[in-house]
Records
---
Amino acid sequence: MKTTCNVCGSSSFEEQKVDDIYENPDGRRFVVENIPATVCTVCGERTLSLATARHIFSLLDTAQEVTKTIPVLEFAA
Ligand SMILES: [Zn+2]
């Protein structure tokens, strides 16, 4: 648990679920929803735990595999 904000120095935090956009190693962007974060109540700076950050990276790895599937084309006359 943090004691002071890296940005504004406040010591007031809230546990929140946040949405954020992340890029995977291919440069594709994904919205990750409901990320548990510690949010500064003064400036809104978000801090994720190491376990949370690792989980997001594992989600992005999975998403990368999904996008590697061969696209299906419809033969339309
Ligand atoms: Zn702050």
---
Amino acid sequence: MTWPEAIRKLVESRASGRCEYCLIDQGDTGFPHQIDHVISRKHGGTSHADNLAFACYLCNCYKGSDIASVHAGTGKLVRLFHPRQDGWAEHFRIAGAIIEPLTDIGAVTSRLLRFNIPARVIERQLLHALNRYPN
Ligand SMILES: [Zn+2]
């Protein structure tokens, strides 16, 4: 989808250039970050700014049109993290190069978006060493 430049600038600047899911800076990825419909259009989400998030290519690909997932521990259906309505630090924390979930929402989002697959953890370790990723 091609977005009007004003929308792209708004979403990017609101996120300070970081993926609103995994926090990687756009300047540290091989592909430009994308605009994500937090609630996908197939589930009735709009293209209004309050339903848009800045997402890296990987987070956006893994999320796709999903809005919830099954919690691996409880088997319950849990909605995904919503960057416009939820605080990141309520649901996740950074422990070294790992993004640790703090809530059920954090757990399903972390698993579905594959925050901690080895390649992403190694990438974060390198970015930490360069002071390019939050501690
Ligand atoms: Zn991301």
---
Amino acid sequence: MDKKAQASDAWFAAGDPSQPTRNELWEPVVISGQRIADEAERLLSLEVGDPIERQVRIVHPMACTKGLGLAPGIEVRLSALKPGERTKPFRHNATEVGFCIGGEGRLSMAGQSFGMTQYDVWNVPAWTSAVYENTGRTSQIRLTYSNAALLRLLNVHMVEDKAITGTTPETDTRPHGAPGTAKIRDLFQLADENWLMSYERLINPPAVESLPHRWDWQTVKAELDKLTALGDAYRGRRLYLLYNPLTGRTNGTTPSFFATMTVRPPNIVDRPHRHVSAAINYYFSGAGYSRVAGKHYDWRAGDLMLSAPGWAVHNHASRDQGPVYELTIQDQPFHIFQESLLWQESLASPPLLLGKQAGFETNRAELTA
Ligand SMILES: [Fe+2]
């Protein structure tokens, strides 16, 4: 019997774990630059109690009402501020990647303050209050990418609220990254070389400092443009990952996501490939097209796209209209940590479980020899 006996009962579902799971493929979707600009204008026209309210989520048509992501595990928010406006602080247990797509301003968090201008990227650690201010003369428009969509699906997205979490930024005085102080035998090996850990360590794991970082676009662009010289024979991607050292072997900008900046010289066509991680691209120069799960999608500067739903075969190509620059957000670090990142770099070869198996190589060494 694989149906519910009573609404209040757990039930037994028939299941042969060797049978493939039928995963739901979210259709790729392109949100045009014009739609984004129109929505930003609408946000700027609102009468609001606090400027933090000038925000919306950009939601995939197949998203459930709980997750509200643009990919199942990736929330994308569009935010706008008028000149002189400043948001109130808030914090939650999600991590974020921020991206300025218009205007400029200032971002304050964790006792630090960063200037930001168009195409700068930054991360916001979890449980860290961030305050945004528009110090410029034009509207400030931002995109924010967060794992809040996944946390909502797990029913544990916690936004700080005295009534719910019992804390406010003022009442939480414990420093971030405070080391554990347990002095007992909290981690040791048995004679058979297996490990045991005490309860004291379980509730006091080593705390590491999780810091905000800001990547200045002009500095990143100077490095990226050097990759253009690799020429047509190069079989990799001309990109750099905005790496946060906190994430170690999981290659992240946050523990959940990486942010990469890519340059695509005109008329470059990527090889078809696929990966378990989902990818969202924002194009801010040039134009091109993608083929995803057998369908064609055009895009150009200003467009936001769910460009790679998990495991869909895809490739991207630039047209003959100057270089394409794009920011890509993927939930790759999350999958490396989970040991779930299957990746097939060429459809002619089998997929590999990256982070567990040795990965792929490009021909870059030959080209630069
Ligand atoms: Fe990809």
